[in-house]
Amino acid sequence: MKVRLATYNVHRCVGTDRKLDVERVAEVIAACNADIVALQELDVGRRRTGHVDQAHRLAELLRMKSHFHPAMSVEEERYGDAILTALPERLVRTGGLPGLPRFRGLEPRGALWVAVDIGGGVELQVINTHLGLVPREQQLQAAALMGEDWMASEAFTAPAVLLGDFNASPVSKTYRMLTSVIRDAQAGGARAPTATFPSGFPFMRIDHVFVAGAVTVTRVESPFDARARAASDHLPLVVELEIPPSPAA
């Protein structure tokens, strides 16, 4: 069975041209033809972006269902991450990740975990996250994701995917921590890995898809048309996986 996943930091749907355009972001996502979409930096009910529930609106435009987790909430204004899919799914967990309290001004970070029925008797475990900017902060957050609440949980069974904006390149300690327990979907490929940031001239690989279990990566791509370059400061990272059906099925 094939399943396509995309991870995309949408920068609150404000593009590199400073234009707020939720519909444009939806068009970029639709062109990726992904079955499961992990989004970061969504505004929900925030005055700066017209009080729109961006997670709900994008899901509506894409004819998908969404699960949103607010990493940050101030009264009715929320900001965080979401997983969208039209496949049968169930929410497993949402939660915050540790930060550095002594450093004022750092954004709170979180993660959400959804189990998606991809057919063939297979349930794919999917965790979406957005790590912080400070290396020490990232390492604390990666350690939490590797812990018993998340990837070390008995419920996080293969096949499984961890994806999102990690703000960490492959030379970072954060990346090495994660790849000690889960493999990079782009590692060992026949072609050079795909970078997604910044969208106008992508040379940094900080958006990642990590996979576990009997999963074969069949395709990795990132759109680079004018619309994708303008819609956000990141490009989407799209990974196609081949996953065998369950023996029981």
Protein architecture, described:
The chain is α+β, with helices and mostly antiparallel strands. It has one domain (2-242): Deoxyribonuclease I, Chain A. It is 18% helix and 37% strand. The strands form two sheets. The protein has a six-stranded mixed beta sheet with strand order 3-4-2-1-12-11. A hairpin with a 2-residue loop joins strand 6 (109-119) and strand 7 (122-130). The longest helix is centred in the N-terminal third of the chain and has 11 residues, at 22-32. It is globular.
Topology readout:
Elements: E1 2-9, H1 22-32, E2 36-44, H2 54-62, E3 65-74, E4 77-85, E5 89-97, E6 109-119, E7 122-130, H3 135-145, E8 160-165, H4 173-179, E9 183-184, E10 207-212, E11 216-221, H5 226-231, E12 237-242
Parallel strand pairs: 1-2, 7-8
Antiparallel strand pairs: 1-12, 2-4, 3-4, 5-6, 6-7, 8-10, 9-10, 11-12
Helix pairs in contact: 1-2, 3-4
